[in-house]
Backbone:
């Protein structure tokens, strides 16, 4: 079980732009954490500190008993799997199986187990039957799921998904929601950046709202989405059913269609 | 402004057709939405309207693709790009890589057309203001977040003032208010006479902006009509386009007889507020 501890994290780009302005955060193992907020709020910069792509300008990032300072990406990859927002930054192989096998191979996983892991990851990411396609012939949404599968195959204790639902259709979004649930059920941590508040409300234990390089709200989806001032500052709007029940003047929060209908019934 | 008739297309060296007989009409001043599952042919259709197909991708294209009076497949590329602009799905690949600041990046297309310097500066400043990204003007395009990069890609296309605009999932990386802003900008471009075709998964925004929505399924248009009607059709799951929570809540309420069976199903917040109050 690997907890994450981020302490007073500040990050300034070489150009002088400060992207993170003092973030302190504890993420216990097994949590499903969503990060939401305005474009440019620092969400991607924050998660890129977890696997060492970025090193803190100030402050500290600890992955279990490892301080990321002085550890490189290859080393941290054993603990933190990171699925890029843009799959084309991540994918390189000519063959989907090779692409997905690359990570576990680097971790020294035995050959037979690699094959099992690749097959399992393909199935989880909804890519069965696509194994032999050249990644170039896949759509953006499929390439994103290949990127997801290649991280799933590493079976890291922490999985970071940077805007996993981008470009996915309704089935793709449902499939990724299912993957989030499965990873958490195995006791692993999932951290996802998302702009899809409905996806967020339905699949995560905890929601972090970011603006201007800081965390401005932190709690369960229900708690976070009730902080309307923070949401406005972060250019985020509550999920659809929350907006509806607010427009209708109902006092109690609503997360799911069933809860909405139950409230409707009790009011009739 | 945009007329497609009997369009069939297959990629080079591929046997199967991706587009299997598409007819489509978009008037000047209209925002038309196209929805469909992954693999339905949305990006292929977008590239066909914008001329990437067949001009850069090749392949086997049959039928008529007319934009602003010219036949796109047969016309010179320069004539095509001066009429129709396309914002691609992946903004990371749309940045030219040839310029050091966002301001220069957005001016790049105008520069290539030989637009006079003062006019160029004015047009770039106006589009930066319209999209609320003035503070990014001096930044490097490569230091931007995904969403900021998407806004820059949209600005680079809009600054060219094309008569027809094709947007392939233009808000995929944007926060909710950025998405809304892009849809508002699309609407104001349409009011000025631009024909806009938008491929999008965000059904609530489509309902608020598009006058007509077409469903693309397996290379054919499976359903067309007013946005609210199409997006609350009982076959949305079959087409893989999903439904808003507003539609789902109303369907559940109808099933439990909390709403009459004749209820016109809602797609947007405004629709739903009307149905449930």
Residues:
């Amino acid at each position: 079980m690997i907890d994450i501890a981020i302490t007073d994290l500040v990050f300034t780009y070489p150009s002088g732009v400060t992207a993170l302005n003092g973030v302190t955060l504890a993420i216990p193992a097994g949590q499903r954490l969503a990060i939401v907020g305005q474009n440019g709020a620092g969400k991607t910069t924050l998660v890129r500190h977890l696997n060492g792509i970025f090193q803190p300008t100030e402050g500290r990032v600890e992955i279990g008993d490892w301080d990321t300072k002085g550890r490189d990406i290859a080393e941290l990859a054993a603990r933190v799997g990171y699925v890029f927002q843009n799959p084309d930054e991540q994918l390189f192989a000519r063959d989907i199986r090779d692409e997905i096998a690359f990570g576990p191979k680097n971790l020294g996983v035995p050959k037979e187990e690699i094959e099992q892991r690749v097959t399992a990851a393909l199935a989880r990411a909804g890519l069965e039957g696509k194994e032999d396609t050249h990644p170039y012939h896949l759509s953006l949404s499929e390439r994103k799921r290949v990127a997801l599968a290649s991280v799933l195959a590493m079976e890291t204790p922490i999985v970071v998904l940077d805007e996993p639902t981008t470009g996915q259709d309704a089935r793709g979004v449902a499939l990724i929601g299912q993957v989030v649930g499965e990873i958490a059920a195995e006791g692993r941590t999932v951290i996802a950046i998302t702009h899809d508040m409905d996806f967020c409300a339905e699949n995560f234990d905890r929601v972090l709202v970011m603006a201007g390089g800081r965390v401005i709200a932190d709690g369960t989806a229900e708690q976070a989405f009730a902080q309307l001032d923070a949401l406005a500052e972060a250019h985020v709007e509550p999920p659809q059913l929350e907006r509806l029940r607010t427009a209708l003047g109902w006092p109690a929060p609503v997360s799911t269609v069933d809860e909405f209908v139950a409230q409707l019934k009790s009011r009739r | 402004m945009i007329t497609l008739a009997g369009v069939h297309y297959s990629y080079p060296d591929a046997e199967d057709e991706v587009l299997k007989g598409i007819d489509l009409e978009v008037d000047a001043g209209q925002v038309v939405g196209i929805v469909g599952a992954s693999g339905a042919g949305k990006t292929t259709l977008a590239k066909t309207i914008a001329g990437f197909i067949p001009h850069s991708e090749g392949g086997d294209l049959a039928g008529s693709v007319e934009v602003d009076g010219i036949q796109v497949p047969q016309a010179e590329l320069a004539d095509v790009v001066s009429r129709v602009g396309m914002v691609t799905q992946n903004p990371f690949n749309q940045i030219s890589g040839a310029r050091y600041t966002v301001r220069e990046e957005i001016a790049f297309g105008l520069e290539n057309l030989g637009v006079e310097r003062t006019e160029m500066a004015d047009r770039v400043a106006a589009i930066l203001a319209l999209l609320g990204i003035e503070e990014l003007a001096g930044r490097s395009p490569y230091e931007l977040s995904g969403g900021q990069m998407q806004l820059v890609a949209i600005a680079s296309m809009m600054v060219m003032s094309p008569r027809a605009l094709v947007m392939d999932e233009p808000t995929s990386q944007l926060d909710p208010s950025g998405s809304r802003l892009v849809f508002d900008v699309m609407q104001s471009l349409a009011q000025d006479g631009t024909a806009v075709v938008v491929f999008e998964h965000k059904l609530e925004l489509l309902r608020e902006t598009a006058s007509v929505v077409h469903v693309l399924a397996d290379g054919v248009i499976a359903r067309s009509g007013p946005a609210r009607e199409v997006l609350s059709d009982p076959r949305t799951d079959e087409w893989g386009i999903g439904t808003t929570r507003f539609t789902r809540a109303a369907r559940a309420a109808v099933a439990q007889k909390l709403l009459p069976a004749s209820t016109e199903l809602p797609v947007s917040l405004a629709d739903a507020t009307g149905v449930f109050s």
